[in-house]
């Protein structure tokens, strides 16, 4: 393999290199993933997304996620919207079902171009997040600098959401990696700092596990809404404003599922030279 085709996409600035591994398998190790994600010598992205043939009945495709540091991720809300858009455009259908490590995710392409994804039920038991030991997930025993007592949630991946007076004032680049690697999180965690502006509007910034500061995090936005509602700070639906823009998050009362709605943007097509990812 001398060259590998890719698509560059993003959801609110959370950017991805998307590789189609359905025609033929693509083997990427962590070194290759880091090389592709490098913003100076590679293509540059927060995550690399591989679209693979589905393994589960009813799925249109399987989505595999590698972070910029080469580690694997179970879920990525913004990437799910991007892949769902690609699948919907291929099939001409308005809906797509994607298989992920976090389970099957149903997505719908809306008439306005937005993509809505059913992210499933948030998990709040300490074992499911997972945490290293039993603790109150509404106020976990974690602290760093001005941050303390986060709400811990799993949206298929672990999140710790801290509520603060001003999310923009937090030095998340310094505090994020410290908390990400706290001993309470055996699989590390995504770290969010959230300010509840009112019961229907949340300002959020996220340090993503394996990617660092990102302009948006779909699962982080879901975790923030669920955490705010559990704390009695917000209703079941809110606009979550991230550095890259807004997501609409609904926590349905009927089935407990989180519905995330937002844009999915195509940037460009290209080819990766074999030398970049170790191919031949």
Give the overall pLDDT as a whole number.
95
Q: Indicate the CATH topology of the largest domain.
A: Diaminopimelate Epimerase, Chain A, domain 1
CATH architecture of the largest domain: Roll
> Which shape, going by the Cα principal axes?
globular
- How far the N terminus sits from the C terminus, by CA atoms, comes to 5 Å
Low-confidence stretches: none
Count up the helices. Answer: 5
Compute the gyration radius: what is it? 18 Å
How many E-type strands?
19
Q: How much strand?
A: 35-45%
- How much helix, percentage-wise, in residues? 10-25%
Largest sheet: 17 strands, mixed
Multimeric organization? single chain
CATH class of the largest domain: Alpha Beta
Overall structural class, as computed from helix and strand content, comes to: alpha+beta
Overall number of structural domains:
2
CATH superfamily grouping of the largest domain: Diaminopimelate Epimerase, Chain A, domain 1
Order of helices and strands: EEHEEEHEEEEEEEHEEEHEEEEH
Can you describe this structure in just a few lines?
With 280 residues, the protein is an alpha+beta fold. Helices cover 18% and strands 39% of the residues.
Structure description:
- The chain has 280 residues and is an alpha+beta fold.
- The chain has two domains: 3-109 and 265-277, Diaminopimelate Epimerase, Chain A, domain 1 (Roll); 143-256, Diaminopimelate Epimerase, Chain A, domain 1, CATH 3.10.310.
- Helix content is 18%, strand content 39%.
- It has helices at residues 30-37, 77-91, 172-180, 218-230, 274-277; strands spanning 3-11, 14-20, 47-52, 61-67, 72-73, 95-100, 103-109, 115-118, 143-144, 147-148, 151-154, 158-163, 190-198, 201-208, 212-214, 237-242, 245-251, 258-262, 265-273.
- It has a 17-stranded mixed sheet that branches. A two-stranded antiparallel ribbon has the order 9-10.
- The chain is globular, with a radius of gyration of 18 Å.
- The model has no long low-confidence stretch (mean pLDDT 95).
């Amino acid at each position: 393999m001398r060259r590998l085709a890719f698509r560059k996409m993003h959801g609110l600035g959370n950017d991805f290199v998307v590789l189609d591994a359905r025609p033929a398998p693509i083997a990427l190790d962590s070194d290759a993933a880091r090389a592709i994600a490098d913003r100076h010598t590679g293509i540059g992205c927060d995550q690399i997304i591989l679209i693979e043939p589905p393994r589960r009945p009813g799925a249109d495709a399987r989505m595999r996620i590698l972070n910029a540091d080469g580690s694997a991720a179970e879920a990525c809300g913004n990437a799910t919207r991007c892949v769902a858009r690609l699948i919907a455009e291929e099939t001409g259908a308005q809906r797509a079902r994607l298989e992920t490590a976090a389970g099957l995710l149903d997505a719908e392409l809306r008439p306005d171009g937005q993509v809505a994804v059913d992210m499933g039920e948030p998990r709040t038991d300490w074992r499911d997040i997972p945490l290293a030991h039993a603790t109150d997930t509404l106020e976990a025993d974690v602290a760093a600098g001005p941050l303390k007592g986060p709400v811990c949630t799993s949206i298929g991946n672990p999140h710790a959401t801290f509520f603060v007076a001003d999310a923009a004032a937090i030095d998340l680049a310094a505090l994020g990696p410290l908390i990400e690697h706290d001993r309470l999180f055996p699989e590390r965690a995504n770290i969010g700092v959230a300010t509840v502006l009112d019961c229907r509007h949340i300002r959020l910034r996220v340090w993503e596990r394996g990617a660092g500061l990102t302009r948006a995090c779909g699962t982080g936005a879901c975790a923030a809404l669920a955490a705010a509602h559990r704390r009695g700070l917000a209703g079941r639906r809110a606009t979550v404003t991230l550095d890259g823009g807004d997501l609409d998050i609904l926590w349905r009362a009927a089935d407990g599922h989180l519905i995330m709605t937002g844009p999915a943007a195509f940037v460009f097509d290209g080819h990766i030279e074999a030398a970049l990812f170790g191919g031949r």
